[in-house]
Amino acid sequence: MSVTKDGVPAQAGTSPAGSDASAGRGRVSRPGRRRRRRDDPRLEHVLREQASVWTRMKRERWTYAFIVPGMLFFLVFSYVPLLGNVVAFQDYSPYWGIGGSEWVGFDNFTAMFSDPQFLGALKNTLIISSLQIVFAFPAPILLALLLNSLISERTKRVVQSIVYLPHFISWVIVISIWQQVFGGAGPAAELFSAIGLDNVNIMSDPDTFKALVVSQVIWKDIGWGTIIFFAAISGIPNELYEAAAVDGAGAARRTWHITLPGLVPVITLLLILTIGNVLTVGFEQLLLQQPAVGADAAEVLDTFVYYRGIAGGDWGLSTAAGLFKGVIGTVLVLAANKFAKRLGTGGLF
After folding, report:
1. Nearest Cα to 139, choosing from 251, 262, 226?
2. Which pTM does this prediction carry?
3. pLDDT of residue 349
């Protein structure tokens, strides 16, 4: 019979080592469970991904340092000013500030939707934006397809440079040029007089003002959009055109079945962004021409906010109009993005 070190007889079939092992059996299993958790492949994958991200950020730290100024710009001038939208729910006074101004709830929105001037500005904004989507948005696409059909590369570059130059001209200069050409004393008025139409002044006619605005936008920005679409066209593999030509497809069929499908992602992206800005039209362009045609034809939401807020001092109502624009734009972007995904063309995000 074996005796333990304490002098107590040990039972048969048992041993001090066995009793110690059985007594500590529960303690031994815990480290094993912890070890299995550490050895979990999913956990190891997550830890490896985190380590690789921090490793890449450390390696590319100077690249991220160059991003910081841009992030600070948007933070200071885009995101922090969003806090000022609280003015839309106050009877705001610059003297009292945000903290001392009276809280009025949705009174500014009620007054805004009952204001005939706001309703007229909203109507003009929707009409001009719709005309721009229908006529101004496809114009760069058509010009890019036209340039792509040209054989001479030199001709492409010359035409592209000419139509791109107006993009760098400010709206003040653009309106001055159009006034000199289409105004009452310009060559367009003289041409109308020669064919028997006297006193025709396109620049001051309220009936044709919206078409004039769209024409100005096309003339000024068609070159910028052409560069974007022409770059997308150049990214389409030439092997597709060569294979289509071997199969007997003409230029029109190659454009319809190869070029346009290749432009769908870019068209979708720009169209979603355009729809999001449907309540934002050229502020400077319309502000400069409003005295000539009157507020009934040229008043839009941007000019309404300017005249009612900055010029008139009604800060609460003008901020409510700006907040209304932002909310509607956000909803339209989300809806257009979801609709584009359902069509299978991809979306913005």
Report:
1. 226
2. 0.77
3. 72
Encode pLDDT of 165-209 as tens digits: 899 999 999 999 999 888 877 788 788 888 877 777 888 888 889
CB distance 232 to 262 below 8 Å: yes
The C-alpha atoms of residue 344 and residue 261 are separated, in whole angstroms, by: 12
* Phi, psi torsion values for 281, nearest 5 degrees: -120, 175
Residue type for 91, please? D
Distance CA 314, CA 305 (A): 9
Helical H runs in 39-184? 41-59, 61-74, 97-100, 107-113, 116-131, 138-149, 153-164, 171-182
**3-class DSSP state of 159:** helix
> Would you place residue 43 in the very low, low, confident or very high pLDDT band (cuts 50, 70, 90)?
low
Return the residue matching tokens 């310009």.
186
CA dihedral over 272, 276, 278, 280, signed as positive or negative? negative
Where residue 4 falls (left for φ over 0; alpha for ψ -120 to 50; beta otherwise) is beta
